[in-house]
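Sequence in, structure out.
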Amino acid sequence: MTPSRKYIDLILSACGKWANWDPAIPIAAVGDFGTIDKKTGRFEKKGNILNDERFRNITKGSSVVKPKGTEDPMLVTSKNARKAELIADASFDAQVTKVLFRGSWSFQDETGAVLILHRPFQTSLSPDIDIDALVGHELLRGMCIVRDLITCQAYAKYLSSSGGGSLSLSLGVTGALPAGGGGKATWGKSSVSGVFVAGQPGEDEGEAYPFTPLFTLKKCKKKSFFGHRGPLEGSVDPLDSLEAVDTPWNPLDEEGEEKLPRAIPSVQRASNWESDDE
């Protein structure tokens, strides 16, 4: 079984962003370029266009754009997820000051995924990029580039077993809640079959965003619209004209393994067929 690849596949299909199998590891930064490992789905960094002098003509002094984060949790569920009744034992291990989120999902006879981000914060590549120089740079041929990434203060992810499963999950905050927010995130869940991992910052991390569950990849290649390769009509961001990155594997089964292509039946030549009259 290849759970990381299956999880990435399900989340990508649900929201168009690549998932980091281990959000505690900062797998990528905005402006990174590299390739995708076909066996694991992991992004393999080769460099970064923002801090490499060889790409100065592309970036033109650009940096990153840091939009304001949100207090609302971000929820991503695979397309086969079904909302279910809350399970009573989705309780917390610690005393919570406030419950921010409760949810329950089920997956029937197939693998499903759930990802929740607490206080997500998106960082993006500046649109002040010379796209023609980017797609024409020899060091970026066959590469994909990190357009944006989403970090968060806490996360929970779930990948059900291949036969399905269910999950009830709660997100709460412990400690004091001053007017400007605060407190520490904590998770409460039901017993589950499959893979469940949750992360929350330690006491000394303050307002940091230590987890990177999601990021967007673009090919260093423009989209083609019947021969037209310019920016999308109405788009003010030239990065919108770059192709999305497809998974480098064939369709996966419920275990995350590539499905074998169906064999094409061989057809004998008519001259080799035996006549019924003989």
